[in-house]
Amino acid sequence: MKVQAIELRRISLPLVTPFRTSQYTEYERNLLIVQLHTDEGIGWAECSADDVPVYWSEYLDGAVDVITRVLGPALLRAGNLTPATVSEILAPYKGHRTSKCALEAAVLDAWCRSAGISLADHLGAVHTSVPVGVSVAIEDTVEALLERVDEYLEAGYSRIKLKIEPGRDVDTVRAVRSHIGDEVMLQVDGNGAYSLADAQHLARLDEFGLTLVEQPLAFDDLRAHAALARLMRTPICLDESIVSLRAAADAIALGACRVINIKPCRVGGYLESRRIHDLCLGNDVPVWCGGMLESGLGRAANLALAALPGFTMPGDISATERYFAQDITRPFVLSDGRMELPGGPGIGVQPDLEVLDAVTSWRTTIRPD
Ligand code: SMG
Ligand code: MG
């Protein structure tokens, strides 16, 4: 397959409620949409970097720059390529995994569409629907948080994930656990806001029967996570720390986690995600698919990944209405705590071009020199 042109658009989708984590509050989701033109048809994907580098080092303006000046031209120069060669072509350029993921995902979509197969089948999916959870933002008051949790449980989510931060952790989790009862699957995410000095405090979370505690400590401190893991009964799950297959292997070998959150945009793509999945499956480490408040394009691709056999825990792949009043694709809905894979070739959905135009604030096309 030959890449002929790469169209980039910045879009902005207002969030139905602000998304507040220990690091940042987001009011609208600004994303980069990739439309890849190849000699075998079109591929769609998104680059899910944030406006500012707070979740991790990548951010949207940086993604625009590196795709426009470096990664995009490299793909255009590459001649014939397959999805598997994209990461090799882009390997000389260090980092920028979210941008690399967007380009690889667009190639995968074009490739699968032209072959008439779904991305899910291409990746080796074994399910046609997957259980999904919801990530609940930090609220000013416990009352507001309980209301939000009730709303999501009523919608049927299979598990609740609470964002926590110092000062909003043990007491908050106690209130939510006693409100929802012991049966509901509950987990927490610190987004790296704690240090090993908080170990005794974090260990107090053990009494709430949590499924896991996600990324409590700094992203680049596997040893501290391993030390914390020895002090807590609740399994540690890593998110920000797992940037590659190698990082996943290190984390497992060090005992830094018992569960891994796989986010394709964090590890450089869907094929690296599958390699991490395979490693975890071989080591009895359950995985689940993380989320970055994606548009329907990223959501559809994440669903395909989440249908692989090792994804035994509900992912952060929530219904469209949890994020946006209007998405660029048809809405994704929940049914009995699960979400159906779209089916159809490629990622199985396409943007509504009228809606896409309406939310686009900037666009450019990268062509061969
Ligand atoms: O897509 O539902 C979603 C968001 C899930 O909590 C979520 N993502 O650390 O896991 C995480 C966060 C990262 C996004 S913060 C902008
Ligand atoms: Mg996380």
What is the H level of CATH, i.e. the homologous superfamily of the largest domain? Enolase-like C-terminal domain
Under CATH, the topology of the largest domain is which? TIM Barrel
The general outline is globular
N-to-C series of helices and strands? EEEHHHHEEHEHEHEHEHEHHEHEHE
Helicity, as a percent range: 25-40%
What percentage of amino acids are in beta strands? 15-25%
Uncertain ranges: none
Which structural class fits the helix and strand makeup? alpha/beta
Q: Which small-molecule species are bound to the chains here?
A: N-succinyl methionine, magnesium ion
Spatial extent as radius of gyration = 20 Å
**What is the β-strand count?**
13
CATH architecture classification of the largest domain: Alpha-Beta Barrel
Strand order of the largest sheet: 5-6-7-8-9-10-11
Outline the biggest β-sheet.
7 strands, parallel
Whole-number tally of structural domains: 2
CATH class of the largest domain: Alpha Beta
Query: How many helical elements?
Result: 13
- Average pLDDT, all residues: 97
